[in-house]
């Protein structure tokens, strides 16, 4: 049975032999086939420089899907899926090659979607090639992967160039965190639960912590990562997306594109961090060798291709304050790093202590309520509530009880757990932009990030601390919070 909204598309992938295509796109498309979400007439047109043909590429696709999905391929699904694949040999620096693509696209009257799964330096030649061959027609769409530039200026250059060929409504900028179930659930959590909705402000919330911890290192991506660092690679996009969703005002319609405007409004309220306050507001680190899951791993400076003098950070913690009436006085602490002790992402909302003095008399260190939103792995929600310890003592003693939800997987079973790329590919086929990042969002994020990176570069004080792989980051990260009488909520 065919599902709503799934138009017949020609999905053209630039970068067909790349890591992203094999690891994420092909497995996600195969799953969409299995869920019967793809229109009968949709085609997948893989393009690349290699001298392959369609038969050859189908074989490569099968190997990749098997490897990265890690499950048996179903014959019926595979038969339908493989029949959609066409390989088109294009060197994106050769404008004439785009006419080969034109010939294929002309065979059908499908909605054309271009997916740029290629390094950013190749983007311009794709825009030009498509433009020269008149393939940027108004019904077409283009999907771009992050990073979009490495600064406000470079990002503007890409966006300006892109806007010569495509209108904003045709452009789908991917941040795969926006396709994750647990992140989307933040909207329901905040706006559908009146208890939380009415208490989501500086009257009840003391501070918020957002952690995205990774076990992986840079995975043989020295050239890419060393230019970026964890701040550009993770904070500029994924962590700021989480922060804006956690703090934005309610959009008029939860599925509409007004969500993007609400996020931009928040980005404009982030107080500047620059050379003057960088030491008070940030901590950076770089991993040295250590153990991850019992296995020895290399230091960042010993990774393949490393430049031994690199000052690039693989860990960053930031204290963010907002110029926003509802959030005045509430610090948001973000931290993310590679080669940390466990892979997990979590938001912890620390509520203020009860103002009732009689309890404080008994308990000078009275604890407070916490809402712990585990995003990954096994998304779940925990609410720490204060409770009296039953006893015959005259003293009134309080303790924390943890109310914990099912994990989403337990409650709804695995079949409802959608991979981020499956969701985002489908949304792009439907032509809905709300889960994609607008130009304004990308540029506002860079506006805030640039002075942080310049601050680190230009300050005389050394601000890069080594941390052991398998730890929770450099000491400075703890000091950053301790300076405000806070401490990181520990992983458990
Ligand atoms: C990517 C970054 O965008 O996100 C990687 O480039 C990072 O460096 C990855 O490892 C993390 O994604 P996830 O979904 O595993 O949290």
TrEMBL record:
Swiss-Prot/TrEMBL keywords: Carbohydrate metabolism, Glucose metabolism, NADP, Oxidoreductase
Residue positions binding NADP(+): 49, 146
Pathway in which this enzyme or protein is active: Carbohydrate degradation; pentose phosphate pathway; D-ribulose 5-phosphate from D-glucose 6-phosphate (oxidative stage): step 1/3
Binding site for substrate: 176, 180, 214, 233, 338, 343
Domain of life from the UniProt record: Bacteria
Pfam families with a match to the protein in the record: G6PD_C, G6PD_N
The Glucose-6-phosphate dehydrogenase C-terminal domain, residue ranges: 188-488
GO biological process, one term: pentose-phosphate shunt, oxidative branch
EC number: 1.1.1.49
Catalysed reactions, as listed in the record: D-glucose 6-phosphate + NADP(+) = 6-phospho-D-glucono-1,5-lactone + NADPH + H(+)
Active site: 238
GO molecular function, one term: NADP binding
InterPro entries listed in its UniProt record: G6P_DH, G6P_DH_C, G6P_DH_NAD-bd, NAD(P)-bd_dom_sf
Any one annotated GO CC term: cytosol
The Glucose-6-phosphate dehydrogenase NAD-binding domain, residue ranges: 12-185
Coiled-coil intervals: none
Role description: Catalyzes the oxidation of glucose 6-phosphate to 6-phosphogluconolactone.
PANTHER family assigned to the protein according to its UniProt record, in alphabetical order: GLUCOSE-6-PHOSPHATE 1-DEHYDROGENASE, GLUCOSE-6-PHOSPHATE 1-DEHYDROGENASE G6PD
Sequence similarity: Belongs to the glucose-6-phosphate dehydrogenase family.
Protein name (database record): Glucose-6-phosphate 1-dehydrogenase
